[in-house]
Amino acid sequence: MDSTEIPIQTEMVELVPNGKHSAAMNASAIPSDRFDENQPTVAEMEEFLPHGPDKKQTHFTDFEGKTSFGMSVFNLSNAIMGSGILGLAYAMANTGIILFLFLLTAVALLSSYSIHLLLKSSGIVGIRAYEQLGYRAFGTPGKLAAAMAITLQNIGAMSSYLYIVKSEVPLVIQTFLNLEEKTTDWYMNGNYLVILVSVTIILPLALMKQLGYLGYASGFSLSCMVFFLISVIYKRFQIPCPLPEKDINGTSNFSYTLVSTSDYQNGYTPLQHVNEGTCSPRFFTLNSQTAYTIPIMAFAFVCHPEVLPIYTELINPSKKKMQCISNISITVMYLMYFLAALFGYLTFYGHVESELLHTYNSVDPFDILILCVRVAVLTAVTLTVPIVLFPVRRAIQQMLFQGKDFSWIRHIVIAIVLLTSINLLVIFAPSILGIFGMIGATSAPCLIFIFPAIFYIRIMPKDKEPMKSTPKILAACFACLGVLFMIMSLSFIIIDWATGGGKSGGSH
Ligand SMILES: NC(=O)C[C@H](N)C(=O)O
User: Which residues form the Amino acid transporter transmembrane domain (predicted)?
Assistant: First the structure.
């Protein structure tokens, strides 16, 4: 048993928003409304109570989960893995292999440390909900800040996934039907297709009562990403560098032309490599785009809103077990991220686009393997939407319906409203997705660095860990690092907007 969790049983605390612990009492004696805001209903509790007599391992009073260790690894890995992977090869092209590896390792380690802080804090509070940690640390403002950061980050992530669906599914259908030109049929219209995918696949999964039920979907989503990775590695040895020059437009010797998604709907336009010497890897490089590396990597490792909900549903939970689940997921994703970035980079070198899939599409959108890769990525991101939606629904419930019993109607209505809004955003205001670059630059550092650190500092009692103790000083440095990243990312995005670059806008 982890020492930090003993207090839950022995040092049960009032939910007072000042970090001071006013009561020391046994968990069994705690009235049921003590943790009112996150308390599941009796029926919900009973449904998930283990039927055996084994109660010894129960550390939390909020909920007893029944999701296995393996399924939790799948769910957390699926929460980590998303459109972030598509931006990493671009990041590597702008940092070089060694600097990229260093930064990726740093972000992965910091991400794991941040989960450690969240788990330790939740062990003290006795409730595994991000918003509750905020409430415990700073009262209602803390709870609202956490809930809003989760909502914005996850709505941003879901919009980017659905935007991939909107732009890629018509191309997949076009390639399947072997059509040279895009037709006006409804099944070639990304707007209808995104609604269809949302209603038939995402909504039913999002209506599941528990995240744990999504384990199989997550496993499948991850296997799609493994297929994507294998294809990226294979393509490295198949696509020549430099690419054969084909100047079908008769344009001059322009160093490189990547066709946009809409351009290649009009037929195959090859890449044009002219600059020689572009086919050797760089190990260390710095340029104006290097600045985006940290925000891209931070986004790629965000899974923090999902950690505590997954912990809540874990069978026989303990902090050690959940940290182990997180470390396994982060390590596997770290390896996949590195390999995808490395082989994506070694295929196109400096010509890799900020969205890896587009770069392949530009080579030959009718290539059968590329087609399968697109389907795999589409499936993976589609199956990630329900996982990412769960914490948003929980945050909304915490903000608007706190203390209310579980209600199927509310559960369904929130999912429908959320999905409808994201669909509308993706269909009618794709340019607004650029705003999410801004939001991502604010909410990701908050969720990974700032909140876990400051919540921890406030929640951990001073008599256990004085302000000058090493863990609290480390946490304070971690929060400062987050503020630094946030200022850095925001400045780059603003400079980018001001100079009309727009690389940071909504693609991931
Ligand atoms: N879950 C998220 O917020 C983003 C995810 N880490 C991604 O790469 O897409």
Answer: 66-495
Furthest-apart CA pair in the chain: how many Å?
81
List beta partners, residue 314: 67
Residue nearest to atom 7 of ligand 1 (CA): 82
pLDDT given at position 345? 93
Which residue has the least CA distance to atom 2 on ligand 1? 302
Alpha helices in 13-67 (DSSP H): 42-48
**Per-residue pLDDT tens over the stretch 331-356:** 999 999 999 999 999 998 888 888 88
Q: Which atom of ligand 1 is nearest to the CA of 388?
A: 1
* 79 CB within 6 A, ligand 1: yes
SS3 314: strand
Q: What token pair was written down for 47?
A: 């449904």
**In whole angstroms, what is the distance from residue 469 CA to residue 474 CA?**
9
- Check if 134 has its Cβ closer than 6 Å to any atom of ligand 1: no
Give this complex's ipTM: 0.96
**Is 300 touching ligand 1 by the criterion CB < 6 Å?**
yes
SS3 assignment, position 411? helix
Task: Centre a 10 Å sphere on the Cβ of residue 381 and count the other Cβ atoms it contains.
Answer: 27
**pLDDT value of position 198:** 95
pLDDT, the chain, mean: 78
- Give the 3-state secondary structure of residue 67: strand
Ligand 1 geometric centre to CA of 452 (Å): 18
Angstrom distance (rounded) from CA 21 to CA 36? 17
Domains delineated in the chain: 79-240+280-444 (1.20.1740.10)
Q: Is 82 in the pocket of ligand 1 (CB under 6 A)?
A: yes
Spatial separation of the C-alpha atoms in residues 148 and 153, rounded to whole Å: 8
Cα–Cα distance for residue pair 355/344, rounded to 1 Å = 10
Cα angle vertex 344, ends 341, 345, to 5°?
80
User: How far is the C-alpha of 426 from the C-alpha of 447, rounded, in Å?
Assistant: 24
Judge if the beta carbon of residue 302 lies within 6 A of ligand 1.
yes
Centre of ligand 1 to C-alpha 244, Å, is 35
